User: Which sequence fits this backbone?
């Protein structure tokens, strides 16, 4: 009986809240229609909307005295957030009042709900409860983790840059200029991508040196070392392929010299050169190829090798130095 | 190893995770600082690529600079083969050196070897930068 009463009350309040907030948003939106891009309605050629004016204040979006494309989002976040807080309060009060038991936080309930169905804790418990000995809490054991952190940063900023970059000789240079000058925070993202790449190489080399000096490559950890070396080579390959992408003089000629060195390897030199350049010269094919390597092939190989590397490290643990 | 006496340790969660989060936060602050610097001083671009115009000084990125500097003073075939062989040796190194450490001596040898290699690479890089 109690449960039925509570359920009905919560459903009623929820429905009321949704109706109320929808009505509020509709009233505000209807009260002041967003001014048209094209008030005369006769200039059909004007497809690109003009740049939005500078926003005056946040609360103006709520009282309807100002609106732009963000207005619906701001209204939903503010009214919706207030409504969610209200619902949480009501649910909590009813729960405490009805059951007279301790309040269980919502995240705990969600976790328990998931755990009842998928037994996540069976999987997480051995990982989380593993003790970490004090000798492992030294900065030189962080180097690998920092490389992974920088790799994630590279992935995120790289995706952001890929939204605007155009991998053709005619447009690559201009698209980088566009990123640096026009895109919001574009130059910051490019700077982060640039410096995280350098940092990743430094961290990966430092981690390898640490492993070498400590002798952590010895049996049974041979394959950890091999996968680590593959990861370092991948990092350098990222640097080499990414360097061509801006398509400026430095990039073009550094790639020319780099691929020439690969071409000087005995026996397989010509094959390596043609594989890298997509022909005898550096052309648009080279740029497409480096772009594909940089954003598709190398990340796939790196992520796979990284997963293997982690599993191996996890399985065997960190080597205890003498 | 020291299986006889229990070693001092902390739980992975939450103690060690907190430490690692702090380290990641520090690195994240450095990354954000790089971004803020980039807002005022962008990475920038050189002149657009022109296959007809070879610039006077071509230099690769710093992580290939030591190799590039080395190549200018040794025959090109050797210079191109040596890195490949070196990488192959590094790749299969655990299979060449399998004896487990019993004393501190191999550790010291490896430390000195690494230090000297790193110093040579740094010297070549600086040489390549200033030449």
Assistant:
């Amino acid at each position: 009986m109690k449960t039925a009463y509570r359920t009905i009350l919560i459903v009623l309040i929820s429905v009321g809240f949704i109706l109320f907030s929808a009505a509020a948003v509709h009233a505000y939106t209807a009260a002041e229609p967003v001014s048209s891009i094209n008030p005369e309605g006769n200039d059909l050629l004007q497809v690109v909307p003009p740049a939005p004016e500078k926003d005056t204040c946040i609360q103006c979006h709520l009282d309807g005295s100002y609106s732009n494309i963000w207005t619906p989002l701001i209204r939903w976040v503010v009214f919706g957030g207030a409504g969610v807080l209200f619902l949480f309060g009501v649910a909590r009060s009813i729960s405490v009042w009805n059951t007279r038991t301790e309040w269980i936080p919502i995240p705990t309930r969600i976790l328990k709900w998931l755990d009842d169905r998928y037994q996540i804790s069976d999987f997480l418990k051995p990982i989380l409860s593993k003790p970490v000995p004090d000798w492992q809490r030294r900065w030189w054991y962080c180097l690998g983790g920092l490389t992974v952190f920088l790799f994630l940063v590279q992935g995120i900023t790289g995706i952001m840059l890929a939204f605007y970059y155009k991998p053709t000789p005619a447009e690559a240079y201009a698209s980088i200029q566009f990123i640096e000058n026009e895109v919001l925070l574009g130059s910051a993202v490019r700077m982060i991508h640039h410096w995280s790449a350098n940092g990743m190489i430094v961290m990966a080399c430092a981690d390898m040196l640490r492993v070498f000096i400590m002798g952590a490559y010895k049996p049974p950890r041979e394959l950890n070392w091999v996968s680590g070396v593959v990861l370092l080579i991948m990092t350098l390959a990222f640097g080499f392929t990414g360097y061509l992408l801006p398509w400026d003089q430095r990039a073009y000629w550094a790639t020319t010299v780099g691929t020439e060195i690969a071409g000087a390897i005995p026996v397989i030199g010509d094959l390596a050169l043609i594989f890298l350049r997509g022909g005898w010269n550096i052309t648009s094919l080279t740029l497409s190829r480096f772009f594909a390597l940089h954003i598709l092939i190398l990340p796939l190989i790196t992520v796979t090798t990284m997963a293997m590397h982690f599993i191996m490290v996890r399985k065997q643990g960190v080597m205890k130095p003498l | 190893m020291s299986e006889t006496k229990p070693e001092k340790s902390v739980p992975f969660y939450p103690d060690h995770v907190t430490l690692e989060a702090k380290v990641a936060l520090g690195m994240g602050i450095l990354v954000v600082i790089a971004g803020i610097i980039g807002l005022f001083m962008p990475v920038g671009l050189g002149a657009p690529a022109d296959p007809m115009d070879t610039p006077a000084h071509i230099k690769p990125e710093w992580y290939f600079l030591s190799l590039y500097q080395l190549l200018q003073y040794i025959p090109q075939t050797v210079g191109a083969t040596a890195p490949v062989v070196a990488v192959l040796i590094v790749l299969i190194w655990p299979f060449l050196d399998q004896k487990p450490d019993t004393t501190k001596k191999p550790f010291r040898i490896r430390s000195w070897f690494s230090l000297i290699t790193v110093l040579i690479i740094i010297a070549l890089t600086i040489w390549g930068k200033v030449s």
User: Anything to note?
Assistant: The two ends of chain B are 51 Å apart (CA to CA). Chain B has two domains: 8-43, 57-131.
